[in-house]
Amino acid sequence: MKPFIAFFFCSLALAPLSLAQARLFKKRPPTPSPPPAHQMLGMPPSGNPYANPGAGLVAAPVGAFPAPDLPETVVYHRPAASPPSYRLPYEGYRYQRHGGRSRGGLIGSGGKPSPDMLELLEVIRKRAEAISAFGLPYVFGGDHPGEGGLDCSGAMKYLLSDIGFRDMPRTSYDQYAWLREARTLRRTKSIPEQMGGRKGIKPGDLIFWGGTYNSGHKVSHVMIYLGQGRDGTHYMFGARGQKKTGLNGSGVDIFRLESGYQKGLIGFGSLPGVS
Length: 275
What we know:
Strand order of the largest sheet: 1-6-2-3-4-5
Order of helices and strands: HHHHHEEEEEE
Strand content: 5-15%
Distance between the termini: 98 Å
Number of strands: 6
CATH class of the domain at 67-77 and 106-275: Alpha Beta
Number of helices: 5
Largest sheet: 6 strands, antiparallel
CATH topology of the domain at 67-77 and 106-275: endopeptidase fold (from Nostoc punctiforme)
């Protein structure tokens, strides 16, 4: 019996494997390594008064999505009868803008923002977080969340118009002209690494792009810069398009401002009458 058993197992070893058996012994390819993280625009300098978006916008480690402490996503549903309440924080807040034309924008003594400016930035960030929590999609021509969504310039106007910027135009190219007329606009094709000062980008600045769609104008897209997290990640708020979602998974949301956003950049600048 023993020679027969040995002969039987040798025969199995020499027999060709079936397709199903071959798959069992096929070497699996190694798991690919994750691609490197995007190059950020630079770490905030120590003690920079602009570089503190607050607890709600502290950046997550690479791979964490969404970031911790961000507003929980609220899925938007069009109401059957009455529209939902879209109450925003600091409902009674009004920023007292100064008259005349601004030349330096958010520049205060020593290049630091004034206490009023810091309060305005806090309001803008909290309102941006609140709007991003509505779970709204991008809707071309959308002026109000009650319409089911917002577009890029509609999101800017909804964010800012009732806290002291009622003269803000509706479209992105008119908002660009609004800053240009106030002499707060800086034309550039790259976002600078530094924040604050006369040449750096500052929280509360509007950022403009062109060529995102055939608008017939030089400018076709706008968002607002919110600042840096403690790990150097830059954030902006706005409506990015029907296929783009932010940290809460919405089209109207908070987004990471990464190096890829240099493409199509036209310029940025502070809100008129802000200092």
